[in-house]
Specification:
Layout lengths: L2 E5 L3 H13 L3 E5 L2 H10 L4 E4 L8 H11 L4 E6 L4 H10 L3 E4 L4 H15 L14 E4 L2 E4 L4 E4 L2 E2 L4 H12 L7 H7 L9 H15 L9 E4 L3 E4 L2
Parallel strand pairs: 1-2, 1-3, 3-4, 4-5
Antiparallel strand pairs: 6-7, 7-8, 8-9, 10-11
Helix pairs in contact: 2-3, 6-8
């Protein structure tokens, strides 16, 4: 059974959300502030967090940032009354899996939750894959796949979750070329809004963070008409 933590300071809405989720068979808990959410997640991780942004002194952004610092697997759906692009972009950069604007119909919300849990949950009976090699180095960059950290010249590099996944997948290929289609399959899991250009944009951002000269990269290389590879 999947577990859902509802983080919502509107008690009436929180009650309605919890009831809808319980009817669908989810194990549900609810908290109404950011500090309680972090304490609850530290003691017992949930399958998915339904997260409001406006939570007072410890905001939804703070909760998301702290969660992703230690947990890359728990799914997060931001449920917010804010419909500004800046809030959506910030949520996705911090690691949200979806952003839903209130008010939203219960059937749509449940469908989004089901889709995310199908995409993020390990396959039944199969262990969660662990990289055969968890540490990688190239140039002046050090990558820890288990801790999800990247250091360059001893300084921690701020990296979006999808950028990190892309970098690790390329490193796991040990210098072999990976096509754009394969990257879409392995890193984006065939998300419907992903195109080849999305892969190119993420590669460019990796170069901006990790190369001395983005126009003439030494490590994150394009192989024309084939894909990308990392040269150590």
């Amino acid at each position: 059974m999947h577990s859902v933590l509802v983080v919502e300071d509107d008690d009436t809405l929180a009650f309605a959300l919890c009831e809808s989720l319980r009817i669908e068979g989810y194990a549900v808990e609810s908290v109404n502030d950011g500090r309680s959410a972090l304490a609850r997640l530290a003691s017992s991780p949930a399958s998915l967090v339904l997260l409001d942004l406006g939570l007072g002194s410890v905001s939804g952004f703070d909760v998301l940032r702290a969660l992703r610092a230690t947990n890359a697997t728990t799914a997060v759906v931001v449920l917010s009354g804010r419909d500004q692009e800046v809030d959506k972009v910030q949520s996705f950069r911090l690691g949200a899996d979806d952003y839903v604007v209130k008010p939203v119909g219960p059937l749509e919300l449940l469908a989004r939750i089901e889709a995310i849990l199908r995409r993020t949950a390990p396959r039944s009976g199969a262990p969660t894959p662990v990289p055969a090699v968890s540490r990688f180095c190239f140039g002046d960059v050090e990558v820890d796949a288990l801790r999800r950290t990247v250091f360059r010249r001893g300084q921690l590099v701020d990296m979006r979750p999808r950028e990190f996944d892309l970098l690790v997948h390329l490193l796991e290929m040990d210098g072999r070329v990976v096509s754009r289609n394969t990257l879409i399959q392995k890193v984006w899991r065939y998300a419907p809004d992903v195109a080849s250009r999305t892969v190119d944009q993420h590669i460019n951002r990796l170069r901006q963070r990790l190369e001395d000269d983005c126009a003439n990269p030494r490590h994150i290389l394009t192989v024309r008409r084939a894909g990308y590879r990392v040269a150590v």
